[in-house]
Write a structure and sequence with these properties.
Layout (H helix, E strand, L loop, with lengths): L8 E10 L4 E4 L6 E4 L7 H7 L7 E6 L13 E5 L14 E5 L5 E9 L3 E5 L9 E10 L1
Antiparallel strand pairs: 1-2, 1-3, 1-9, 4-9, 5-8, 6-7, 7-8
Length: about 140
């Protein structure tokens, strides 16, 4: 069988770690993750790692933020006047919310800071700006 290439459907097992060592995600042992290589479901650096692998191959890879979930962007951090924040929402630091953008799309945000006058919302991916380590095992090319 030819190695994995963009456009292939593959099954993988993976473990993802923050660079200091704590695990943040893994595939269930009994159920490998099925993805389309190049389908942008995983970070680009991880998909690039799968290219060229054969079923049964395993690899470890370290991804810089640019290859993972991106760098932390200040553009995606906004401050909202408390007076404009919906009163029915329990606002606490760390709370995850979905907000509606002007184009009618919903955006996931987290409350990162609160003061008497304002609430700061961050729409960056929670792993943005982080160096990540992955262990990948290619189970099958479908």
């Amino acid at each position: 069988m030819a190695p994995a290439k963009p456009g292939d459907r593959v099954k993988i097992h993976y473990k993802g770690y923050l660079h200091e060592g704590s695990m943040f995600a893994s595939s269930p042992e009994s159920s490998p993750l099925e993805i389309l290589v190049g389908g942008n479901r995983l970070p680009v650096g991880l998909e690039n790692t799968i290219v060229g692998m054969n079923p049964g191959d395993s690899k470890k890879v370290t991804l810089a933020p640019e290859e993972g979930y991106g760098v932390h962007s200040k553009v995606l951090v906004i401050t909202v006047d408390r007076a404009n924040f919906p009163s029915h929402i329990d606002a606490t630091v760390g709370k995850r919310l979905q907000i509606s953008a002007e184009n009618a799309k919903t955006i996931d945000v987290i409350i990162t800071h609160m003061s008497e006058d304002a609430i700061t919302l961050d729409a960056n991916h929670k792993l943005a700006g982080k160096t990540l380590d992955f262990e990948i095992h290619l189970v099958d090319i479908l």
